[in-house]
């Protein structure tokens, strides 16, 4: 099967795809968010993932292409959490899940079960943390309440020092 590739431009911190055919291809696979009049906006994690798979070329405003390392460095300069989010995103995508940005503070991703994107709501909410980085129990409880009220499962994705991701399902005790 031929790999479809496309181009995007990074301007003012946004990676934007303008080509209609490539937008359709990406949107069908669950990438990006359409922005009226602009095209399809890719998150930093999506951009890095597609660039790493050689399915996307990202250029600056002058038309110069970014290498993976350059693009990652650009994103990391803005947000030091991008690398952990990228590692989680890449791992979930490699397992066949459609992964979309989360909503609300602290929610990293919404994850759809395989084969249901566009037909059903996301089943999982993923919160990512780096191994050894403290996380408040109150925050976890708040995230758990929110996911339960929306009938989703909360997954804690822990990225270890080697960049490997371990997942923990969090649920209240049934007392």
Name a few traits of the molecule.
10 strands, 175 residues, alpha+beta, 5-stranded mixed β-sheet, 2 domains, single chain, MutS, DNA mismatch repair protein, domain I, globular, Trna Endonuclease, Chain: A, domain 1, 28% strand
What does the secondary structure layout of this molecule look like, with pairings?
Blueprint: E1 6-11, E2 14-17, H1 20-28, E3 33-35, E4 39-42, H2 44-52, E5 56-59, H3 68-78, H4 82-94, E6 98-101, E7 109-112, E8 124-130, H5 137-149, E9 153-159, E10 165-170
Parallel strand pairs: 1-5, 8-9
Antiparallel strand pairs: 1-2, 2-4, 3-4, 6-7, 7-8, 9-10
Structure description:
The chain is α+β, with helices and mostly antiparallel strands and 175 residues long. The protein is built from five helices and ten strands, in the order ββαββαβααβββαββ. The protein has two domains: 6-78, MutS, DNA mismatch repair protein, domain I (3-Layer(aba) Sandwich), CATH 3.40.1170; 94-170, Trna Endonuclease, Chain: A, domain 1, CATH 3.40.1350. It has helices spanning 20-28, 44-52, 68-78, 82-94, 137-149; strands at residues 6-11, 14-17, 33-35, 39-42, 56-59, 98-101, 109-112, 124-130, 153-159, 165-170. The strands form two sheets. The chain has a five-stranded mixed sheet, covered by helices on one side. It has a five-stranded mixed sheet with strand order 6-7-8-9-10. The chain starts with 5 loop residues before the first strand and ends in a 5-residue tail after the last strand. The mean pLDDT is 90.
């Amino acid at each position: 099967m031929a790999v479809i590739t496309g181009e995007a431009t990074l301007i003012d911190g946004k990676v934007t795809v303008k080509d209609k055919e490539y937008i359709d291809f990406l949107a069908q696979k669950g990438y990006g968010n359409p922005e009226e009049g602009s095209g399809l906006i890719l998150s930093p994690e999506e951009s890095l993932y597609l660039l790493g798979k050689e399915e996307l070329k990202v250029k600056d405003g002058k038309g110069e292409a970014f290498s993976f390392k350059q693009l990652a460095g650009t994103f990391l300069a803005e947000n030091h959490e991008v690398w952990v989010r990228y590692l989680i995103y890449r791992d979930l995508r490699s397992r066949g899940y459609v992964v979309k940005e989360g909503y609300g503070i602290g929610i990293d991703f919404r994850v759809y079960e395989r084969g249901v994107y566009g037909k059903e709501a996301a089943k999982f909410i993923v919160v990512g943390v780096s191994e050894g980085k403290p996380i408040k129990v109150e925050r976890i409880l708040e995230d758990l309440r929110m996911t339960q009220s929306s009938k989703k499962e909360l997954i804690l994705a822990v990225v270890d020092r080697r960049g490997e991701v371990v997942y923990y399902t969090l649920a209240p005790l049934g007392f």
